[in-house]
Amino acid sequence: MQHRRNSSRLFARNRVPITVPFSKLLQSKGTTVLLTAALFLPVVAAPSLLQAQQLIASNSPDVSSTESTSLALPDAPSAVVDPQSGPTPAPIPPQQTDNPDAVSANGTQQTKRVLGIVPNFRSVSAGTKLPPLSPKQKFILAGKDTFDYSSLFVAGIQAGFSMNSKSYPEFHQGVDGYARYYWHTLADTASENFMVGGAGPIIFHQDNRFYTLGHGGFRKRTFYAVTRVLVTRQDSGKQMFNFSEVMGSGAAAGLSTVYYPKQYQTWTKVGQKWLTSDLIDCFNFFWKEYWPDVNKKLFHTD
After folding, report:
1. Which structural domain range is residue 268 located in?
2. Is residue 102 part of a domain?
3. pTM score of the predicted model
């Protein structure tokens, strides 16, 4: 008995130096642990999301029936029940074609540019089903968005707003300061486009194009558009968690630490840029969804 008590005291004395430093280590690394968990959360949650989508799809054999309307995938024509009362446009029947400039059945069309200026090369008209792109074609498409003349112009406007608000005081003002803002904006745009629209779709075998829904009420179409940040198509046409967007924008945000001042090379700054990129893409999908309708209304005669 005396031997056991001595052993217990010895264990208690030896245990303290091990546990106390470890608890301090957890406290000092708390932020890093949380950010790492946030980074890998989409990867862990994606299989469950995908499995739920596949289960929903298997329980909805007839897309035209009322039951399947409430169970269809978000990318399907009847994905979300329109909460608004009154009649809504009928679903657009999909048409298999090799023409990326095809006009949808309701007469709307995604144009290569918005208002003749803003690039819109990755948008597909509603009801159009295109063949998958090769890795080379995906990179070319990302390059078009990056090096288009309008992208250089838009980057100039963004740099001007950033300098006016003194987003990065270290860049200073004047011509030299504007030049620093400008090339940093171009670098951010290029890394974002190639990670999200090029490398990501190739690695995860995903389609880097935006397929317009084109029918339903405002809430239904808006929900569909903004959720394309999380849901996309595989090259096979099936639904999949949008690893290209989520992981690609995170990789681009991390890459920015190479060319930004040291005080912006923190987990917090990277996380803010990561989240901002995804929110901006939500807005991009939103206006791309409605652009064909606006274009038909304003610039075409029925």
Report:
1. 78-299
2. yes
3. 0.68
